[in-house]
Design goal:
By secondary structure, the protein is an alpha/beta fold. It folds into four domains: 94 residues, no CATH class; 95 residues, Beta Barrel (OB fold (Dihydrolipoamide Acetyltransferase, E2P)), CATH 2.40.50; 193 residues, Rossmann fold; 158 residues, Rossmann fold, CATH 3.40.50.300. Helix content is 39%, strand content 17%. The strands form four sheets. Strands 6-7-4-3-2-5-8 form a seven-stranded mixed sheet, with no helix packed on it. Helix 11 crosses helix 12. It is globular. The relative contact order is 0.10. The C terminus is likely disordered. The structure holds adenosine-5'-diphosphate (ADP) and magnesium ion.
């Protein structure tokens, strides 16, 4: 029988009751047990001399009880002094019954296992495991390191060990190794059987640190398969989408021509190329799933607007979704400004819209009187229905994962037809990485900025020289320009962040009593934030002090100076995103990175990179080098795949091989795709059929 489907109850000693508890550990099948990896190991393979024990380590020792006594210091406890001729060790029991007390008597020999600590009278073990060794022959020492498994209440470590041991003995030989041997050879990885045996039962002297850090080939073997499984599941999803139907966009592009004719600028060749790629996809019968990567300021919005016109001309509706109210508002203004002159009805739907106004908007959307709706996630909440949604545009993709993408599509579904999806991100990641992690998407890249932009000149200045910075502010404002002063999140606390920003704003107000200054932060009501941003956009506010609420994508071309405090604490991509707020107009722009010395090596490298380049892809490449994809993509942000064993940072070298191996498997062993995916992603990932 296939162990991938064999229930755990097939194991000896696992009845329905235990099986129920194992479910809480996500252990349903015998195969699951094999992939339930130890957290750490105990070394019970050798006997230690008491004289050689170190506090903080677990150890096995043998010795004779020299002294046993019940003491009442603070708490009633049984204390035994054990010696093996090389030193003494105290055992301390807080819970013991009369029989235990009687057994743990002077003269008895025992074998002990426990954590050695530094106690009041030297080394001690609290509640060690013990076994008497006088009389009967003691059990032999363990042959291998002892695994400690992640557990849950009601499941004893010993029973997990027994289950795992039994599974290894009886079932390990039945596990299928889906990876072709040549691949293993190339990547210098062990077979699945070897890897699992080693991870569960490492022989003595295995470098357990390497296992714990995931650098051991056995763990890398498993991590690689998991990454491969993730990639394959996305590929499969993609293949499935290619069998689905989508509304075909066929217009002659009249509206697009009209909008282009009215624009004060010409599209860059990169924008034109990407627009073509999108329009080509929209003309297919299958739903487009396209990711557009483009540096901040590369002009993604107009491309999205032009693509929307394609859909609208074919009588379809478009939904444009942004991650925050601020960005949604900005998009609403841009889209309205561009499309309403063409006679197209644009509506906004955000969380703050209530009552009648909301009702009105909803009616327009459901009746098809609104061709395009712009908003936040509120666009896809219950009660929102489209008449005929053809295209969903999602801005700043990195906050949305595959599940969110699919859920959106399903909400826009009409009969058998699903809408096209266009996803835009300003966090470019290198192509190979994008292809491994976003295998369900096609990727387009806007790889040039509109002409006339001047690179932002960037300097790093220690905070002691703050005064120099202040004079720059005066210069910029006198020249009619505007300034951002960013106080980023330092503590993991919004309140503290706000305090710093408030203090800074006060100090700047004193320094420049004649300048129009405003403070914007996350605690303000959306309406207030909007007012401030609007005033800044109109030039009424000259100096904007902000916490990190100034979002990716906010567009104020007249702002030409940005000061970022505590720049050494921010990640490279984050700095780049912030800096992207300036250099949007034709004036020469400056970015000042204020830092607190001394700089760590990493911080120095980051600030150096910021000074040397303003190319988002180059920044991404360096960020990747320094921190790895996990950080770059912000694993903690929703939307990144969650892995059991793999780690995007640690395993980035493996990630490079995922795509080619996946292709090989798909071509030569297509029947293996399903079982690989099932092994790792389980039934939870059946997202193809939401
Ligand atoms: P992002 O890619 O960061 O979303 P935006 O779409 O906000 O960039 O564009 C930034 C600014 O550049 C906007 O003011 C936009 O109108 C302008 N823009 C876009 N394309 C061009 C172009 N081809 N030439 C000149 N300006 C452009
Ligand atoms: Mg944008």
């Amino acid at each position: 029988m296939d162990i991938a489907t064999l229930p755990v109850t097939a194991l000896k000693g696992v009845g329905p009751k235990l099986a129920d508890k194992l479910k809480r550990l996500n252990l349903h099948t015998v195969q699951d047990v094999l992939f339930h990896l130890p957290l750490r190991y105990q070394d019970r393979t050798r006997l230690m001399r008491i004289g050689s024990l170190r506090p903080g380590r677990e150890a096995v020792v043998e010795g004779e009880i020299e002294l046993a006594d019940v003491v009442f210091r603070g708490r009633r406890s049984l204390i035994c002094r054990v010696s093996d001729g090389t030193g003494h060790l105290h055992l301390r029991f807080f819970y013991f019954n009369a029989i235990q007390q009687q057994n743990l008597a002077r003269g008895r020999r025992l074998r002990l296992f426990g954590l050695v600590r530094f106690g009041a009278v030297g080394l001690e073990m609290i509640h060690p495991e013990y076994e008497f060794t006088d009389g009967a022959q003691p059990a032999p020492a363990e042959e291998n390191l002892t695994p400690v498994y992640p557990s849950t209440t009601g499941v004893h470590q010993l029973s997990l060990r027994k289950i795992a041991r039994q599974t290894l003995e009886k079932h390990l030989n039945k596990i299928h190794d889906w990876l072709p041997p040549v691949v293993l050879q190339e990547l210098k990885l062990p077979t699945l059987t070897e890897a699992l045996a080693l991870v569960h039962q490492p022989p003595p002297h295995t470098p357990v640190e390497l296992l714990a850090e995931g650098k051991h080939p056995a763990v890398r073997r498993l991590a690689f398969e998991e990454l491969l499984a993730h990639h394959l599941s996305l590929k499969r999803l993609r293949a499935q989408m290619q069998t689905e139907k989508a509304p075909v966009v066929t217009g002659a592009g009249e509206l697009i021509k009209q909008l282009l004719a009215g624009l004060p600028f010409r599209l860059t060749p990169a924008q034109e190329r990407v627009l073509h790629e999108i329009l080509h996809d929209l003309g297919q019968q299958h739903p487009m799933q396209r990711l557009v990567q483009g540096d901040v300021g590369s002009g993604k919005t107009i491309v999205a607007a032009l693509a929307s016109l394609g859909a609208i001309e074919s009588g379809l509706q478009v939904a444009v979704m942004a991650p925050t109210e601020l960005l949604a508002d900005q998009h609403l203004k841009n889209f309205s400004g561009w499309l309403e002159p063409l006679g197209i009805s644009v509506v906004g739907l955000s969380g703050k819209l209530n009552g009648r106004a909301r009702q009105n908007v909803l009616e327009k959307i459901v009746a098809g009187r609104a061709a395009i709706a712009v908003g936040t996630q509120a666009l896809f909440q219950e009660g929102v229905e489209f008449s005929d949604l053809g295209l969903i545009v999602v801005d700043e993709q990195h906050r949305f994962g595959v599940h969110q993408r699919l859920a959106l599509r399903e909400k826009g579904r009409r009969g058998e037809r699903r809408p096209h999806q266009l996803i835009m991100t300003a966090t470019p990641i290198p192509r190979t990485l994008a292809q491994s992690l976003y295998a369900d998407l096609d990727v387009s890249v806007i790889d040039e900025l509109p002409p006339g932009r001047q690179p932002v000149e960037t300097v790093a200045i220690p905070s002691a020289r703050r005064a120099d910075v202040v004079s720059r502010i005066r210069e910029a404002c006198t020249a009619g320009r505007q300034v951002y002063w960013v106080c980023p999140l330092i503590e993991e606390s919004e309140t503290l962040e706000l305090e710093t920003a408030t203090d800074t704003a006060e100090a700047l107000r004193e320094a420049f009593p004649d300048l129009r200054l405003a403070l914007i932060h996350g605690r303000l009501k959306p309406l207030e934030k909007e007012k401030i941003m609007a005033a800044f956009k109109r030039g009424e506010v000259q100096l904007l002090v902000a916490t990190t609420v100034i979002e990716v994508g906010v567009d104020v071309p007249n702002a030409s100076l940005m000061v970022i405090e505590n720049a050494e604490r921010l990640g490279l991509s984050q700095l780049h995103q912030l800096r992207g707020r300036i250099g949007r107009g034709s004036a020469e722009s400056h970015c000042v990175l204020l830092y607190q010395p001394p700089l760590s090596e990493m911080a120095r490298a980051r600030l150096g990179a910021m000074r040397e380049t303003s190319d988002g892809f180059e920044i991404a490449r360096r960020d990747l080098e320094m921190r790895g994809p996990g950080e770059l993509l912000g694993t903690r942000q929703a939307g990144m795949p969650q892995f059991h064993i793999a780690d995007l940072l640690r395993d980035r070298a493996l990630l490079e091989h995922v795509q080619s191996v996946a292709e090989q498997v798909l071509k030569e062993y297509p029947e293996r795709v399903e079982p690989i995916v099932r092994r790792w992603r389980g039934s939870a990932e059946e997202y193809g059929r939401v």
